[in-house]
Amino acid sequence: MKIWENTTILDSYLGTFDLTKTKKEADVAIIGSKPIVLSEFSKLKGIFRVGVGLDNVPVEDAKRRNIRIQITSPETNEYIFEETANFTCHLILKMLYENSGTVEPWEIKIRGPLQDKSLLVIGSGNIGRRVLDKMQKFMMVKTFDLLENNFSDLKNMLPTVDCVTLHIPLTNRNRNYFDKEKLSRMRYGSILINTARGAIVSENALFEEINNGRLKAAFDVFWEKPYSGKLRQFHPDRFYMTPHVASKCDKYIKSAAKDFKSFIKELEND
Which residues pair with 4 in a beta bridge? Predict the structure, then answer.
């Protein structure tokens, strides 16, 4: 089978698989977070999604063409959930401690204690729940979830916290969910963390808030990859960027490669 990919995450583990850059030759597509246009693939039998979420997968078109879709296994997803939560905590702590002092010049800046800081976790799913459990050992943590709260709760919470972290899926309904109105409610000097999906946040609205000095942010996900948009000018001080690495530990990649090989065997036996 010929394999086409729009992510290189599994390259070191694909061994002797026959890779192609020609979409019309591909029997199977390996995709990451980037979308694909199914009409460009005339021979496709299967799509393997590396990671969680199907927002970039043409599910209905695939069903009509009897193209099988495979996502990573629960075992693999556990690595994704845990590592993404850990990396989110890293970003939160990094941003809250970034003004502790400098070496050149040697200067100590007095800060308030972390236990007095507050965090709002938006989304209480597999990753958000883990972030809550980890961060409440360090600081005050509040949660907001559309399944548990009213929208008015979010309006009231945003001005009261030092940091907001996003853990909701990307759907047509919540594209640009964090818009000008919500960002404007955040406390002056507070921080927005995003390891979920870039398009959940309005790029233009966030630019305005960072440009005028009201907010800071740390993102591991973007509106396109590699990101070269206008927010990049604020990296690393006011808009800290990492290249979508939150979940990328070796055990996750090895486990995903194992899932892919099992998927290929199933396709070959059909």
Answer: 29
